[in-house]
Amino acid sequence: MTRRRGGAIADLLAAPRDPGGVEPLADGACVLRGFGVPEAADLLAAIADVVARAPLRHMITPGGFTMSVAMTNCGRAGWITDRRGYRYAATDPLSAQAWPPLPAVFDRLATRAAAAAGFAAFAADACLINRYEPGTRLTLHQDRNERDFAAPIVSVSLGLPATFLFGGLRRAARPRRIRLESGDIAVWGGPSRLVFHGIDPLADGEHPLTGRCRFNLTLRKAL
Ligand code: MD6
Ligand code: FE
Q1: At 156, which CATH number?
Q2: Looking at CB atoms within 10 Å, which of 32, 73, 118, 143 has the fewest?
Q3: Is there an atom of ligand 1 within 6 Å of 163 CB?
Q4: Closest ligand, as measured to the CA of 162
Q5: CA dihedral angle for residue 203, residue 4, residue 18, residue 167, rounded to 10 degrees
């Protein structure tokens, strides 16, 4: 007798973790397991350089809520939110200076990951850096402030593992749950570019590279 479990638990139990493997999520979206592991320490050093110039901060949503994820940016544009809305800005509102440049290690890894996922010649011009501490979550949202939805987004996980919510093109679609570990890279574009997604509250833990937190880099073509 074979029995199939349905729902969220099944997604987690069934998740194959083949390091170096490509795990399809949907048309245009996949997870490259462990793709960023060799660069992880260099990525974290580059994050520290960015954060020294453009500190992590808790931004305010247009509705007046303080985000639990701490964020900063590098590249030609940075994603920001405040009472006036969500948008990209060429300067950091904290310093009124340009965001730090995109580190070469971000840029190269993003292009390689996109190519491995089937998106040739991806050139990121912006990177949002997210820091999660235990209990921090990101509610379901779409990434739709970029000018051109033809380019994919490359999303790098570092440090503590997270449960990624991968929904559908409508908010009401019940999301699948996918565990993302340090070095995993999700790439999505094409028909999945506007999928609703989020992150469950981060479980407490200790990671050798980051301690009690998770970083996520989302590399985009914003302009
Ligand atoms: C995160 N990621 O992994 C949140 N957005 O912490 C995102 O919101 C995201 O992973 C667009 C594309 C890929 C992503
Ligand atoms: Fe997003």
Answers
A1: 2.60.120.590
A2: 118
A3: no
A4: 1
A5: -60
